[in-house]
Amino acid sequence: xxxxxxxxxxxxxxxxxxxxxxxxxxxxxxxxxxxxxxxxxxxxxxxxxxxxxxxxxxxxxxxxxxxxxxxxxxxxxxxxxxxxxxxxxxxxxxxxxxxxxxxxxxxxxxxxxxxxxxxxxxxxxxxxxxxxxxxxxxxxxxxxxxxxxxxxxxxxxxxxxxxxxxxxxxxxxxxxxxxxxxxxxxxxxxxxxxxxxxxxxxxxxxxxxxxxxxxxxxxxxxxxxxxxxxxxxxxxxxxxxxxxxxxxxxxxxxxxxxxxxxxxxxxxxxxxxxxxxxxxxxxx
Amino acid sequence: xxxxxxxxxxxxxxxxxxxxxxxxxxxxxxxxxxxxxxxxxxxxxxxxxxxxxxxxxxxxxxxxxxxxxxxxxxxxxxxxxxxxxxxxxxxxxxxxxxxxxxxxxxxxxxxxxxxxxxxxxxxxxxxxxxxxxxxxxxxxxxxxxxxxxxxxxxxxxxxxxxxxxxxxxxxxxxxxxxxxxxxxxxxxxxxxxxxxxxxxxxxxxxxxxxxxxxxxxxxxxxxxxxxxxxxxxxxxxxxxxxxxxxxxxxxxxxxxxxxxxxxxxxxxxxxxxxxxxxxxxxxx
Amino acid sequence: xxxxxxxxxxxxxxxxxxxxxxxxxxxxxxxxxxxxxxxxxxxxxxxxxxxxxxxxxxxxxxxxxxxxxxxxxxxxxxxxxxxxxxxxxxxxxxxxxxxxxxxxxxxxxxxxxxxxxxxxxxxxxxxxxxxxxxxxxxxxxxxxxxxxxxxxxxxxxxxxxxxxxxxxxxxxxxxxxxxxxxxxxxxxxxxxxxxxxxxxxxxxxxxxxxxxxxxxxxxxxxxxxxxxxxxxxxxxxxxxxxxxxxxxxxxxxxxxxxxxxxxxxxxxxxxxxxxxxxxxxxxx
Amino acid sequence: xxxxxxxxxxxxxxxxxxxxxxxxxxxxxxxxxxxxxxxxxxxxxxxxxxxxxxxxxxxxxxxxxxxxxxxxxxxxxxxxxxxxxxxxxxxxxxxxxxxxxxxxxxxxxxxxxxxxxxxxxxxxxxxxxxxxxxxxxxxxxxxxxxxxxxxxxxxxxxxxxxxxxxxxxxxxxxxxxxxxxxxxxxxxxxxxxxxxxxxxxxxxxxxxxxxxxxxxxxxxxxxxxxxxxxxxxxxxxxxxxxxxxxxxxxxxxxxxxxxxxxxxxxxxxxxxxxxxxxxxxxxx
Lengths: 284, 284, 284, 284
Description:
Four copies of one chain form a homotetramer. By secondary structure, the first copy, chain A, is an alpha/beta fold. Chain A folds into two domains: 2-161, Rossmann fold, CATH 3.40.50.720; 167-283, Orthogonal Bundle (N-(1-d-carboxylethyl)-l-norvaline Dehydrogenase, domain 2), CATH 1.10.1040.10. Chain A contains twelve helices and nine strands. Chain A has helices at residues 10-21, 37-41, 50-56, 67-75, 97-109, 123-127, 139-152, 164-192, 197-205, 212-222, 232-248, 254-268; strands at 2-6, 25-29, 45-46, 59-62, 88-91, 113-116, 119-120, 131-137, 153-158. In chain A, strands 1, 2, 3, 4, 5, 6, 7, 8 and 9 form a nine-stranded mixed β-sheet that branches. In chain A, helix 2 links the parallel strand 2 (25-29) and strand 3. In chain A, helix 8 crosses helix 12 and helix 9 (197-205) runs antiparallel to helix 10. The longest helix of chain A has 29 residues, at 164-192. The termini of chain A are far apart. In chain A, 61% of the residues are buried. Chains A and B meet through strand 9, helix 8, helix 9, helix 10 and helix 11 of A and strand 9, helix 8, helix 9, helix 10 and helix 11 of B. Chains A, B, C, D: Residues 163-282 form the 3-hydroxyisobutyrate dehydrogenase-like NAD-binding domain. Chains A, B, C, D: InterPro entries: 3-OH-isobutyrate_DH-rel_CS, 6-PGluconate_DH-like_C_sf, 6PGD_dom2, 6PGDH_NADP-bd, HIBADH-like_NADP-bd, HIBADH-related, HIBADH-related_NP60_sf, NAD(P)-bd_dom_sf.
């Protein structure tokens, strides 16, 4: 079966290569078409436009950088909408619930099926097929896409109505942003108290709080290395959206609010393009 | 070899039983002596006073409720100091660095050896021998005690000078207190946004943040059950001590400070004796 | 000279009566027209629609409850736009910069002049002509309106381009919201330390921090009385908008963020319609 | 009548000169005796030791830098205690309740009377006799000192038991520290939104929030000038003590906690000796 794939950034490239390596036939498209060349080497076919990809495939996956790119691929000339009648469209980008619902409504009005499916995990998880997929929308399309999801991720969730996936993803990232600040403060406390912060990593790693985030970020933070796995400015944006969701639903979130301000502070001192673990530098 | 054990509270009882089951000969003492009866059934001998226990054993472990109890057992009449010459004393209670140093100085002045060895982990870890032991002080005594530590914990650390273990423990608990607040806010956000908070537990458990704390506390929090594994008022006290340590060393800790105020708020509304996960109730 | 006045809520009513008492001829309109009766007793004329008021007057002032009401009065059928050619329109409502700019653009496109002029101060200031007016937009219209502003307020500012008045107002309210939280915490601290909180009011009132906000709100807070001068839910909304403005401009605002969460907490426990000083109840 | 005065720092010097100018006979002492010379020019007599001053005067005022200096002057050799029998001692230093009670107990045990009388206000208030005096302890001594207090301050309060004055002072400073952060965030928000922060000062000064703190600090903050009226490190210490008092009494103080961390951050970047308004630099 032919799958369409729109968007070959860091995440999209890794995901579409995974699909190809697992025997899927994939037709790819990227705004800068030359980025498709590497995929062709892995066996992909290239579509000239989003509409062309959609027309050719049973369903099409999109992995785009932000809400504006997600909207553009759907609504612009030669966009997804033009050929979506009778097809499926799966947006795995991280976008807010409102944007996701807007895309869903337009696609349904044209006779297509829509699934939102944001992921938890970064570049290395994408490469290793270890993403967590948080889907919502058209249930039958979800089931149709499960073979692909099984290749892309280690676990898929189906939540219900479009928008619920986006909300769940924001909650996950809010927890992650606050945890990173908690971790940063602990590391600085140990360091400034004259102890070895590497020992804190070890102690944490042997206790109930042991987790992959601390394990992967701790050693690089100690080396003052902030190569972006997940850029700080995106983390800040997600925390802002999570706080806005909290505001809508009258949920007090004081710790997330303060964590957000730490990311804000980091951004205002030029750290926005580094990894989000660079928030520790606000504690200097 | 005979080991002394002072203090048979929730933690001390589980730890001394573990030692007995692994073939150690243990002489126990507790302020309320009747609490020793159950230990006798497991094979323990009873000492009449801390001094009597210390006199009889090569080294003695203490697991007491707070700094004041830790001081009392050492300095009072019939206390540890009276027989410590030539012996070892290991305090595994959670106490601040100043108290630990005060005890250490007195014991060394009387010709004894001292090791502080606070633990990370609660009642179930104590029962299962899965504590993490954070030791500092007399290195030879640490090595002598390793066979016992191997029974009590899954991992032991030796950090250096007396006081360092206490500081490391505070940093660990500061991270834990902030993480619990981050987790609580995420759960409330999901719930009030009309999603299933159980799904957040699932999603978190499959991603990089998966950890034993969320796994053990999440399900009970969803049931609104706060049976104290680690009482909230103790968590708040530890966060306060961690913030004080930060203050001494000029470490800004805004997230921990806000988390501490949430525990403070919880305490002021009568939740101090519940499990520290009851902090989620401040988000009602 | 004839002045138009749209919106006779708590603020608008007090302001238009003030204008009438100072000899201005005022034509009023309110969505619920019966509310105009009291104004007629004070000498006002009634206009049937916003368009009718604008047509009759040299310039028209609006004082509406929120952005949506502000937009409706301008853009709806029989709205301001229909007759604005050659006239002036002054919106004194509290609205965000984006909404203000949208109204401004439409009015200018139709040949009218626009001034935004949000105010600092509540009901009693409106009644006493003691508002602070923060204007921006069409300079000549500002000067034309100065005689009216001199009646309505004790001080007027002209800031420049449309949107700047709205932004300045948000900054003022962010300071106010944080100050109210600081004040609340001080009162609770004194009270729970066994001292008389009334003495704190006295001490503050004799020092450098003495200000009208503490003087007017302190005594009612001590009586647990929260009759809404400025509803808490509006304060929370303004803090959220101020934080969003900070986010746009990369300004870390940790104290305002935490103060906002306290208002959020108050709202979530049903205090939204009380005065914003009711935020002290989150410290119970 | 002869008054003793111990401590001729910035505050003590201004206060004792005031007393001399208003006709009081004053015997002064300072640890560095040469600092007494200027006071002699104003008509003071010099005492060789605290004990010598106390012996000569009906009552003695102390204005010392911190708890340790306050204790030393009383308990050291040739200290206050040696001659306090039948005399009065008034400590106007800013010290915590525990220290104040310790001094009080010792003085009463020796047959002396004690009054704590911390002040609100800085150097300029001291020079102008505009301090606010927050007294507690021996009521008759308070009344005896009122003529002097009337010269030193514009208003005196008598609160009750020793310790209550210290606590009230901490609450006042907690409000002040949070207000300064609220003010700083407002100024930065306005500035980064492209508006003139001087206009915010003007707007605030015409509204309900107008106060002497903003009026005196605003203009110097805009000039980036932080000549210490009240050093930041002392402000941070007072906030910490206020939070500790809140902790004792289970008062949640999230805004003060975050404000304290901002001062902490400022201290950790070397701003501790500047005026406390330099906390705005943490928002860069």
